[in-house]
Amino acid sequence: MINPTWLNTFCTLVEVNHFTQTAERLYMTQSGVSQHIKKLEQQVDCALLERHGKQFTLTVQGQNLYQQGSQLLKEWQFLEQQLKDDSPYSGLVKIQSPGSCGLQFYNQLLALQVEHKELIIDYRFAPNTSVEQAVANHSADIGFLTQAPTLSEVTSHKIGQEPLLLVTPAAIKSPTWSALNELGFISHPDAKHHAQLLLSENYSEFEHVDQIKQTGFSNQISLILEPVSLGLGFTVLPAHAVSAFNKPALIKTHHLTNPISENIYVCHHRNRPLAKRMHSVIDAIKAS
């Protein structure tokens, strides 16, 4: 079995990329760091570093060990934390979701935190693909997605739906295909997915969002409708993102013939059991 102390020294060295700074971070001497690396190389019977003076690069074996070993260390740290403290209402919960989910869920989870001051909510907004990757590499404990995950490390189940809405400048009374093409499309990180779902079911001319000229882009959920409100284009967004916009008089939401909603999934790492506090977070969202 690989010595976890030596493995931790090796992974820290890879991340810091400096022997002296690694020693400082681990409260060791530089020679102690070198000894750990040497002993680890002897244990796995292969070279992990190629040294170039004071610099180094990883061998192929070193790269493989770091990728697998860093995940193992996170699992061990999580297990240790879970064994020490598995209270349903205390400890850190790291959550990620797309913006529209976050606009709804974050306030609900803050209300839960107000009730339970020992519970710490770390909530970050990111596109679906980034959320899924964060769950897969243990950067997030829980992810909320609007697309079913595709990575084998991630498991999920559906917890709800959210309507998708076509939003134009207020002056557009009828969102005909020609009117949309004339306006142009305001894009965002999940725009292609949203547009494909809604527009394909309501416009026979629609094949792909790239048919329509792009007239803007924003990755900030609170700013996506700003260019729409100025007449610069239209977009497709989930309902919570639209309802949160602070200039509703400058935009128009259109309810199309074939309404479409996207599913909302909660996901976590397949090989990582959920702590009680994470179940508390999920239950609070489901109850809302």
Automatic annotation (TrEMBL):
Gene3D superfamilies membership: Periplasmic binding protein-like II, Winged helix-like DNA-binding domain superfamily/Winged helix DNA-binding domain
Kindly give the Pfam families that the UniProt entry links to this protein.
Answer: HTH_1, LysR_substrate
- Which parts of the sequence belong to the HTH lysR-type domain? 2-59
The answer to whether keyword Translocase applies is no
Q: Which UniProt keywords apply?
A: DNA-binding, Transcription, Transcription regulation
Cross-referenced InterPro entries, in alphabetical order?
Answer: LysR_HTH_N (IPR000847), LysR_subst-bd (IPR005119), WH-like_DNA-bd_sf (IPR036388), WH_DNA-bd_sf (IPR036390)
**Record flagged with keyword DNA-binding:** yes
- Describe the family membership recorded for this protein in Swiss-Prot or TrEMBL: Belongs to the LysR transcriptional regulatory family.
User: What is this protein identified as?
Assistant: HTH lysR-type domain-containing protein
Please give the organism.
Answer: Pseudoalteromonas issachenkonii
